[in-house]
Amino acid sequence: MLTYFLFPFYLIGGITVLHWAARRHGIPFTIYHTTAAVLFKVLMGILYGYIFFHYYGGDDTWEYFTKSKTATDILLTHPGNFVKEMLPGFSLQATHSNGWSAILFYVHHFEFWFMVKFLAILNLFSAKNYYIDLLLFDLLTISGLFLLFKMLINRFPAKTGMYYLLIFFIPSITFWCSGIRAEALILLFIGFAIYNGKAYAQRPNGKNAAGMGLALLGFVLFRIQYLIIFLPALIAFMLSVGKKQAGPVYFSRIYLAVLLIFFTTLFLPPAFQLSRPLIQTQQNFFVLKGNTRYGLDSLRPGAVSFFRILPQAAANSIFRPYPWEGKGLLQSLSSIESIFLIAGFLFFVLSDPLKNKVRSPILWLFLFYAVPLLIAVGFTVPFPGAIVRYRSIPFLFMFLFLFSANNILHLKLTKILFPKTLNKF
């Protein structure tokens, strides 16, 4: 009975706090904008939990929750044991090491430990209810989307309506980023890293350096492989902001250097090739079992293998599942997502001249982060269920980049959704 009171209490309270924070930081939301964004995210999160529990027998999120209930009891009775795994001594003892092996063990297990213990803490406020935990999780992680929205509308106020729809209301992306998973946290880290990185590039200070450092630490502990791809884009973004360069000059230079270094190592002996982590990751996925698997050839040391498999990788991660391959609701939604991306590309090509389309470092960051990540996912992951989850964030960034082109459409959407904002310009 308590859960019927707690859920609306936290929902109304969370929306109120988020709306106050949004208005305080200059986001032109009415209470209806805030409520719609929060409700859609929470509903997608509930749908995620319901589908995976009732049709797939649970997934990682339900395993986190199941173990968190025991962890809550430990927290209340033996708090020292509750934090034991998170301390360095546990990893040192588990690996019988005092060096690199212990660090790798800690990073490898941190996501699981954090999720279980974070939910264990939320259980104190939710009476150990999965869906209330999910509500609290979404209320905390949606702030990353608010930051992205704020930065975009500050640069392109006339496009407020378009960014509102893209950031908060793409069903498939919101679905994958609203469950109790690392994707929601990664999106939060990205928002904080970009926001603080921009502020630091404009005026260096300790507060923004600390904020950026914490966001990057989150990458290290949850998805260090994503950080390897994100860091060059963030550096190029900060250089562009600091030098007031709206074009992709620094992005092109940095990524050209990265590509040259990467492909140069492919002609070295296998032990010195930077492709080794990709090859090992692919082999790790190949030994797993799944109901559906895309065709994906094995990567080999050397440049020839990468160029040969590139079309296959791009097709798997960007364009599939094709409409005729959709098996069930989730895959059908994913095929619509791919069609939407193709439509975005056509929209981009057929809109204003190129020089008028993208004149902001944050949009170039989206592109230069999204494309390499999509290709890396395509090279390493053969399972469509995993691919559509891993590509959710890069697809969001691709949509934001591609649909930032036609000012006429943007003005119409903003006039409908944010008329007061449009009247200021």
Could you walk me through the main structural features you see in this protein, from its secondary elements to its overall organization?
With 425 residues, the protein is mostly helical. Helix content is 77%, strand content 0%. It is built from 22 helices and no strands. The protein has helices at residues 2-24, 31-54, 60-77, 79-82, 88-95, 100-126, 130-141, 143-155, 160-169, 171-176, 182-202, 206-243, 249-265, 276-286, 303-319, 329-350, 354-357, 361-380, 384-390, 392-402, 407-417, 419-422. Helix 2 (31-54) packs across helix 7 (130-141) and helix 12 (206-243) crosses helix 13 (249-265). The radius of gyration is 22 Å and the shape is globular. The termini are far apart. 37% of the residues are buried. The model has no long low-confidence stretch (mean pLDDT 88).
